[in-house]
Amino acid sequence: MSVFTIEYAECDVTFRFISKKIKMNQNRKVKIKVEDLTIVFGRQKKLALKLLNDGCSKKEILEKTGCTIGINRANFEIFEGEFFVIMGLSGSGKSTLLRCLNRLNEPTMGKVFINDDDITSKNNKELLQVRRTEMSMVFQKFGLLPHHTVLTNAAFGLEIRGEDKSSRESKAQKALDIVGLNGFEQQFPIQLSGGMQQRVGLARALANDPEVMLMDEAFSALDPLIKTEMQDQLLDLQDTLQKTIVFITHDLDEAIKLGDRIVIMKDGIIEQIGTAEDILTNPASDYVKAFVDKVDRKSIITAGSLMTEKPTLVRFKKDGPEGALRKMRTTGLEILPVVDIHDTFLGFVHINEVIQAAKRKDPTVESIIHMHVPSVSKDVTVEEMLPLISETRSPIAVVNDQNRLLGIVTQTSLIIEATKFNEEQINELKDKANNQ
Amino acid sequence: MSKIIDIGQYIEVAINWLTENFKPLFDFIKHTGNSTIIGLEWIFLAIPFFVVIGVFTGLAWWKSGKGVAVTTLLGLTLIYMMGFWKETMETLSLVLVATATALILSVPLGIWAAKNKLAAKIIRPMLDLMQTMPAFVYLIPAVLFFSIGKVPGAFATIIFAMPPAVRLTTLGIDAVPKDIVEAARAFGATNRQILFKVELPLAMQTILAGINQTILLSLSMVVIAGMIAAGGLGERVLEGINNLDIGLGFESGLSVVILAIILDRITQGFVQNKK
Fold first, then answer.
1. What is the CATH number of domain A77-298?
2. Which of A102, A417, B1, B21 is the most exposed place for a label (fewest CB within 10 A)?
3. B2 lies in a domain?
């Protein structure tokens, strides 16, 4: 039973590894590029920009010019097929930033490129063309037309584009099938639940078959259960359709669940850009840290960041039981991983068995290696590793796709991570216990 | 008390200037208006009265249900039996033409005011003026421009009846949810597409409520327009007043009320159907 579980775990691990790798390769092409993007709200835009470039703070600029800085020199790139999340509290400028990408908000300074094509320099007619073909948008409040049916709502983007009725309705029908609204075509939005209305919004965006989808707090108005369902569906869609998605949310859990990379914004400034794990393990500022502290780390922290790298090893054939015992004495560890000359992970040895083998004067540790132990790849999360604790008394080995040992995750560190206590807190608890 | 400022004098000069310089225009309006109103009257009177009653009853049934249909049937029959059929048809023609013209002018104005803040700032006080100025005052320039008859009657009616349609159009368009407009814009809709595919359909119910108000105000004004020989029920009401003929005054007044109720209920039906 335990063997089966381990093999299953390994198989799953390999699969995840490969799928992530494919994604990384595809991600190389830059789809959207934002350069020095700045938005100033107010009348004296020029003066405000000048002050901003001179290094004045947002507050000083507001006092001197009455202008608000909506976005302050944002720079980032979004790769093709990437799920890019912009996160921030209300008023952080995330919606403003999103609306610069299709110029629903007009940037005061800076540039936006889509496929190396400068959106900011386009005239009105060209801009309409971009909005009609290259990107579509999903809204928090759905933005559906109450006097249209589900079908004609889904076909709205195509209607605007000027497609004839039969072609747009067949495309809309396909989009509705994808989001699971088959059979609701002739209903009106008011007859549907919030989740279903947003599915119509999603279908409307998909019907246009854009390369880029902009999603403005698309799931924030939905109740939690529906929200999770919609998130899962969107991830499935993303797997098959491979759109470039720019998604806005104020919910870090949502950002982490969905985003390949996350941007954290505060007061119109980008605080940090990175993967969920980057942000959780290395928050770039106190602001980000304050956010991160509230997150359930179990589902984000991976074996890769938790493992002890270059652990003390027992080298098969080179180190016999005596050698292993010496290493255990010097390190104080009771369990050590065993690898062959190519660093391939073989298993663990435990101190009491090593002592017995040494007494028997065994030439190698072959007979005492615990071979059927779990091993995981770097991107397996704490949450996924936790069940493995019950399978084994050994630490968990972290290996690459050639089964080479990269490091080990001790059970203690896993439990500490899972119980959300950090080391400081644990030490505090220990001190308290000692003092009593 | 002596006058310190004489605004009236300037208004007089302006009106005179308009009368002299735009005479061909006013003549053109007068002739077109007159033939439209008279044409419509002719149609209403050429059709047998029971057909007209039938059509209105059917329309009421279709849009507003059985109750209103019965009211329409009884009301129009009563008007016919009181002997005010011709006058009622004249008034109806005038109301319809005035309302139609008022709408052609006020819906675009309302849209403009909704889209353009400056326009709104200019239009709003003008609407206030048009609504609060005693309705009789409009009769003076109306007569100067068009002399007496049906067209000046319609002119005064239009000015008096326009404001609610303008206001409610603006209100309706302002009340269209911003996220729906934004959604349309995000999908690449032009301003024209936004107006015709989003704003007007969503504002339609409010605009229809404005149309209903315009019709009722027109009806109240055509009575006043009777003073400048616009004909119809208004003239009979005035006749009743001048001769202290209570019977005549009451009967013609009752006809106005019946016509008002029927037009109101039928247009209300259009508003409700949009919901």
1. 3.40.50.300
2. B1
3. no
* Pick from A144, A146, A156: CB nearest B187: A156
Residues of A whose CB is below 8 A from B196: none
Residues of chain A with CATH 3.40.50.300: 77-298
How long, in residues, is chain A?
436
Higher-scoring residue by pLDDT: A62, B173: B173
Q: In this predicted model, what pLDDT tens digit does every residue of B22-50 receive, in sequence order?
A: 888 888 998 999 999 999 999 999 999 99
Window 8-47 of B: residues touching A by CB (8 A cutoff) are none
pLDDT of res. A214: 94
How far does B202 lie from chain A, in Å, by closest CA? 7
In this structure, which topology does domain A304-418 adopt according to CATH?
A: CBS-domain (3.10.580)
Q: What is the CATH number of the domain that holds B80?
A: 1.10.3720.10
Q: Which domain holds residue B170?
A: 7-273
Nearest to B183 among A128, A129, A143 (CB): A143
The Cα B217–Cα B268 span in angstroms is 15
pLDDT at residue number A434: 64
Predicted confidence (pLDDT) per residue in A144-188, tens digit: 999 999 999 999 999 999 999 999 999 999 999 988 888 999 999
Task: Point out the residue among B183, B190, B201 whose CB comes nearest to the CB of A137.
Answer: B183
Residues of A in contact with B187 (CB under 8 A): 131-132, 136-137, 156-157, 160-161, 204, 208
Q: Structurally, how many domains does chain B consist of?
A: 1
Would you say residue B225 lies in a domain? yes
**With 50 as the cut, is the pLDDT of residue A6 above it?**
no
Q: Is residue B90 part of a domain?
A: yes
Question: Which positions in chain A touch B192 (Cβ < 8 Å)?
Answer: none
pLDDT at residue A46, as a whole number = 82
Q: Which residue among B190, B198, B202 sits closest to A128, beta carbon to beta carbon?
A: B190
Flag whether residue B197 sits within 8 Å of chain A, measured between CB atoms: yes
DSSP 8-state symbol, B196: I
Among left, alpha and beta (phi > 0; psi -120 to 50; other), residue A268 is: left
Separation between Cα atoms, residue B157 and residue A435, nearest integer Å: 95
CA distance linking residue B97 with residue B108, whole number of Å: 18
pLDDT higher at A23 or A60: A60
Residue extent(s) of CATH 3.10.580.10 domains in chain A: 304-418
Q: Which long-range contacts (CB under 8 A, 24 or more apart) does B250-258 make?
A: B251/B82, B251/B84, B252/B84, B252/B87, B254/B78, B254/B82, B255/B79, B255/B82, B255/B84, B255/B87, B255/B88, B256/B91, B256/B219, B256/B223, B258/B75, B258/B76, B258/B78, B258/B79
Interfacial residues of A (vs B; Cβ cutoff 8 Å): 102, 104, 128-133, 136-137, 139-147, 156-157, 159-161, 204, 208, 214
Most confident of the ranges A52-61, A269-278, B72-81, B261-270: B72-81
Predicted complex ipTM: 0.76
